[in-house]
Amino acid sequence: MVGATLAVRLPGIRTAYDVYVDEFVYLLQGQSVRDGHVPPGTPSQPFLIHPPGFFVYESLWMRLFGVDADRFGAVFAMREAQQVLVALTAVGLFLVVRELTGRTPALITGLVFALDPFIARQNGRILLESSTVAWAVLGLAVLVPLMNRRNAVVPAPRRSARREVAVAAAGGLLFGCAIATKDMAAFITAFPLALGLLTGWFLPRKLSAVALAAACVPYAVFVGFVASAGLLPELWRSKTWGLSRLAGATITTGYNADDAPSITSVAVQQLHDFGTSYAVMAVGAAASLWLLVRARRQSEKFVAVVAVSGCGVVGYGVLFGTSEEHLFYFVVVPVLVPLAVAATDLVRRARRGNPRTSIAVVGAVLAVALVFDTFSWARLRATPDDGQVQAYEWLTHNAPPGSKVVWIAGQTKYVFRGTDYSTIPLRDPAQMAAQAPFYLLILQKEVEQRYSYASPRDVQWYVSRSDLVFQQRGATYGDVSVYRVHDPSTW
């Protein structure tokens, strides 16, 4: 599983997916923790939007292996560092599915995880979901066997009671690492444990309480650091703002933002790349609901609750709150386990009637999906998607030192920080004329999909008063373009 996952992820990790703005933000937080700042950021501007779990991991990697001084090189190094956690996700999925169904379904699940194009793209960028779900899956790999042993027909011997407590605490701590990486993980970790504590499902209440208490420890440590720095009011403001975005009271980005494209239109545009991923999410969500009702063991019910919780919180965001594409990682990975359990049960039932036909049908569906995924993977890597890197290279080789570059996407200002070039956010013409800019760097889809505060009409106004000097098309941003502006004094 590890070899297959890394063999799919590492080739083209620098060119297959253009750099996302959050990658620079999270890189800077990792460097901040490496330099001794916990919470990350600066004393005047601490970064409290997310807990620091992944940033601590980044800082440890940087201390062990160093980091490239070039901003893009540093991002790519952290992408490679993240693949360790991705490989552990594959191992965790294999262990969980093997415990619930057997070795063959576990191997197939691992292969689906390795080849799924949406999962591969998510893993190919420094986004918090990959590491968050990695810790959650590892927690499942610890807790699911405990549930099976504890609910076995033959009860566990009393001498194993202390070991059970230790295992429950270990699983809870792994869940806690997920929460300490991204708060949203609480829905797929702490919530199922709390449900077990209230209902008596999954584990004896004592063990559920131990696991839930352990899951709170990493985040409590984070809050302790924040309190010691006197930043609790800032933490409160950050978390209430995050909850407001999640609930839909504040919507600034995502599919529900004003003038943003609908999730349906984006899905249709990307169907040729992520068709099997969408199928996995849809069928996996149905399998999770089925397993929630039809589970024969407490461990099966637990993984179903985890998956349904992930689907529920993301589904709410799609309908009412802030919904962004990368959040669907909280759906596509958790549903793989109920999907494997449901598919195994379906095959076993079908074997009683017409075993050859059932195996042939399942095999054909799986083969078609894997061929589609392989083709999608090959196509994405055959066409470089690194327009920002190439635009940066063009500017540094052709623009005079001291040139001012206008940006519409936040990553541009991070790229040029500390260089001979200065950056200016796009403003109204009078403000821009006073700044006397030389170049515009435009990411087409950032503007069209409303991830930029600059409207398409405003951008077009400036483009019509500039000359195109560089352009490269990629899957992530469409056209990445550099324009040399006309005389700003005429604006």
TrEMBL record:
This is 4-amino-4-deoxy-L-arabinose transferase-like glycosyltransferase. It is found in: Cell membrane. Residues 74-208 form the ArnT-like N-terminal domain. One of its GO terms (molecular function) is pentosyltransferase activity. The chain crosses the membrane at residues 81-97, 126-144, 165-181, 187-203, 210-232, 275-293, 302-321, 327-347, 359-378. It is a multi-pass membrane protein. It comes from the Bacteria.
